Amino acid sequence: MIAKKVKNPRKSASKPVRIAGLLDYVTNPEGEKCIYPGARGFLTEGFQSQSAEMLALSQEAVRSKDTISHYVLSWREGERPNLDQVEEAVSIFMDELGLGGHQVIYALHADTDNIHLHLVINRVHPDSFKVIKPNRGFDIEASHRAVAVIEYRQGWQREQNGRYRVLEDGDLCRERPVPDKPRQPDQPKRDMERRTGEASAERIAIEDGAPIIREATSWQELHRQLAKVGMKYVKAGSGAIVCVGDIKVKASSADRDASLLRLQKRLGPYEPSSEPQWVAARAPQPVKMDLPGWETYITARKAHYAARDAATLQQKQRQGTECKRLAEHQKARRENVLKGNWKSRGALRNATRSILAAAQAAEKAALKDRHQKERKQLRLQYRPYPDLEQWQRQHRLGDFAKSYRHAASEPPRIEGDEAGPPSMRDIRDYVPQFHGQHVHYIHIEEAELGGRGAFVDRGRAIDIYDWRNRDSVLAALQLAAQKWGSFRVTGNDEYKTMCVQLAVEHGFRISNPELEESIQRERLRIRQQMAPAMKPKLRRQVDLDRPAMT
Predict the structure, then answer these.
(1) How far is C-alpha 286 from the geometric centre of its chain's CA atoms?
(2) β strands within 138-265, DSSP E
(3) Does position 517 have pLDDT exceeding 90, yes or no?
(4) Engineered SS bond to 143: which of 3, 18, 285, 323, CB 3.0-4.6 Å?
(5) The whole model's pTM is what?
(6) Residues pairing with 510 in the sheet
(7) What is the DSSP letter of 137?
(8) Which residues pair with 106 in a beta bridge?
(9) Burial environment of residue 7 by CB neighbours within 10 A (0 to 12, 13 to 18, 19 or more)
């Protein structure tokens, strides 16, 4: 499990705008699946009244522009908490931050392979009206403690690089930092690197730019050497930035000695380049070199988003032109209808204006609805491109998933020969639900309770998380047979044995060469079991066919 604090993207927004927008996103996410909402610390029930309560309490803190904190708790892939565990996680998190009793609205989302919980917390104390700083301002540290406690109490797999660990006696212990640990990009950049395999501009500045800056003996040498590797060092205000291609990185993020203040102490007052420098072009760079198919993936990814941006811009321009054209048409129509002498016909003129205004309002509403549908269709057409892990699984390249901090061990799966996108299929007692790029199948009895998905259709493979449940495996095999006809199964021996038994019972075609002998043995065993039951029936059939004795 990991915990993140989401920064306020619009610090200039008023409290009503901030609270309304955030709560609307959390409880009614566009393109996501909110499977369980909840709230605490309110006097009323119902989302609208609770939103009003949160705003009213926030307004009491007149000196604070933003009293709302937004956190996200994310479970590992394949980990699906039940509702009791969600409620327990909220309690632990609030207590560790020292915000027990504060207003909080939370919602469990399932738009990706990782179930995650959004928490919107009002830091205004409900009694004193003071704005509380969680853990004296060190709320990130407190969130790491909460994660360790939740993992321990609920039995989740611990994060490899977690800051805290719960000892056998139940006490929290902070892990010792690794001495001389190399400088790393900040967490959002590392998260993006894990998703795409592409080195961030901050990492490039750390690994390639910082050594050049440390070794430079003059400002002009620094500019020349950076230009050779596609970078620039530029003064910006009272500080400086390192430009990696078109992306700007704070100089001190690359290296402490790269700050403007320290460089000026070493090299003298800042000097811009004395002559125009030719800056080398930089191609996308992988985080590490052993990523199968990475060049193909990153090229396709960038082409996907370039096409999306171009289509979005074209759509925006076209819709803007249509809105402008409609406004001009409606203005001309009003002038045409209302022109002339309306003396002594004021009541008729007012009625005409009212009818015309209603008709034109309907035209605007219809155009707005059509534009919204077009934008939604465009979003569906250009859905988020798969992460590198998903892409490699679809193309059966390598095993990059294990290098992801947030990926679980490989579950038992069924593989086919076609890589088409997954589609929803009705398999008796299992409900299909789109989560991001995949289709999750949940037992009908657990779907309404936000239960864990039994298996996931990823397009070319079906991962089975509830593989000890014979019904779940049978449903997954039925889906595989419907999709591919014959298929391969991978996993532990217990899972493969169950697949062999179900294949013989239901006629599924498993193409694993190493399982052919097991399938033949299972068929023989079934025939031997059925033989005693068949003999009386055959004997009876013979007796019926025999002529009667006279």
Answers:
(1) 22
(2) 164-166, 172-174, 231-236, 239-244, 247-250
(3) no
(4) 3
(5) 0.55
(6) 487
(7) G
(8) 38, 119
(9) exposed
Which contiguous run of DSSP H or E holds residue 107? Answer: strand 104-109
Give the model's confidence band at 246: pLDDT under 50 very low, under 70 low, under 90 confident, else very high. confident
Tell me the pLDDT tens digit for each residue of 428-470.
677 787 666 678 888 876 665 555 678 888 878 888 888 888 8
pLDDT confidence of residue 200: 92
Cα(118)–Cα(129) distance, rounded to whole angstroms? 24
- 3-state SS class at 519: helix
Taking residue 363's Cβ as centre, other Cβ atoms within 10 Å add up to 14
Strand boundaries in 196-263, DSSP class E = 231-236, 239-244, 247-250
Beta bridge partners of 536: none
- Which of 277, 255, 260, 273 has the alpha carbon at shortest distance from 219? 273
List, for residues 115-167, the tens digit of each pLDDT value: 889 999 999 999 888 998 888 888 888 999 999 999 988 888 887 778 888 88
User: Which secondary-structure segment (H or E) carries 442?
Assistant: strand 438-443
Q: How far is Cα 162 from Cα 145, in angstroms, rounded to an integer?
A: 9
Task: Supply 534's token pair.
Answer: 């068949």
Strand order in the sheet with 461-464: 430-435, 438-443, 455-457, 461-464, 413-415, 486-490, 509-510
